[in-house]
Fold this sequence. Notes:
The protein is mainly α. The chain has six helices and no strands.
Amino acid sequence: DTQFVRGCPQTSSSDLRASIWEYYAEYHSLMDCPSVLMLIYEDFIGDEETRKESIRTLGKFMGILNDGDNVKDTMDVENNADDQLIARTAYMSTKAYMSK
């Protein structure tokens, strides 16, 4: 077992660190909390379509993207703006862009 698996008790030279299992228990207890969104890091660094879908999920959760409940006439304009924002966010969140 490593300290990451076991956790690490608080000492005079280090802070208390929970074990991986305590983190998992906390994640599990928050799964149904409406103000918490669980995301998978690998989805944000994966292929472009998966990254865009993750960005869309996050944007909807934050209330900055269309949730799809609008009337069809206004939805096309809003979805186009959402798609542009998602594409720009996906582009600007790449390692290549951020290393400029």
